[in-house]
Amino acid sequence: MSLDKNNYVHVTNGDFKEIDKILNEGKTVLAALECGEKLKASLEEGKMSNGFANVELKEYKDNCGTCGCGKPANCLVYLWR
Known about the structure:
- The chain has helices spanning 16-24, 37-45; strands at residues 8-11, 28-33, 54-60, 75-80.
- With 81 residues, the chain is α+β, with helices and mostly antiparallel strands.
- It has a single domain, classed as C-terminal domain of ProRS (Translation Initiation Factor IF3, 2-Layer Sandwich).
- The chain has a four-stranded mixed beta sheet with strand order 1-2-4-3, covered by helices on one side.
C-alpha cells in the first residue's frame, strides 16, 4: 500500500505488535517514537533500519506518547508498507 496522510491509525503507546497488525492490513500508522540516532538514520533513508516499514517524519512534538523502547516519544512519524 502507499502512504495515506488523510487516513491513518494513530498509535502512541509504542506497541509494535499493534503497529505490525495495522500495517499488515494495508493501513498507514502515525506513530509516536523517540527520535534517537537509529530513527534519524531511518528517516534519512526513508525506511526503518530493520526493513519493518517505510517511514516519514510528520513533526517533532514533545511528550506525544511512549516509544516502543519505553522512553517518552518526541516525534510523530508515518509508517506504511
